[in-house]
Amino acid sequence: MACPFCRELFQEGEETACPVCGVELSPLEKLGPSHDVLAEEIPVAPENEVLPRLYLGRGRGALGVLGALGMPLFFMPWIHVTLPDTVDLSGFDLARRLVWVWMALAAWVVLIPTVLSRRTIWQLRTARVAAGFLSAVPAVTTLVLLLRPPKSRLLPLQFTFEWPLYVTFALSVVAVALAVRLGGRLDDIKVRRGSSLGEDLH
Known about the structure:
- The protein is mainly alpha-helical.
- The protein is built from seven helices and three strands.
- It folds into two domains: 1-41, no CATH class; 48-179.
- The protein is 42% helix and 7% strand.
- The radius of gyration is 29 Å and the shape is rod-shaped.
- The two termini are 45 Å apart.
- 24% of the residues are buried.
């Protein structure tokens, strides 16, 4: 007989309830494995351990921040027009005329949940391709505008590109560099349980 709670063993007929816990005793063979036994089973691979929701390491937090910074830049002036009128055009204004410009905003918006929804190192690593593609979209969008600026066949058009456009391009390039390393290496994972607690894996 054994206590279902503390797993203290007793001879059959010795006790009917655990004198420590007060729980009614049950036959040992009817009890499942104890927590200690389960803890001694094969552990989860370090790269598959669930990370805290607010874990910011291994590129997870950095890419989330870059995505959050990229979104407001889309609504800031990208182009300053001086002819035929004086007007500032944001990425949003350009997207209303050039539909493909919307891809820059969509990429930033999707990048954030793509990265932050990954809760293990392995999941982060498998998201590298998706994160890299999304990170590159704003750079491609701004680069196309820089290399093939808008033109008008009817009116002379003079304009300059504003700093939010260049910052968007820079953030996108940095995001791509982080995305290809998302999740980091597997040989430097800090072990969070067992006898190697806090040690690096090599």
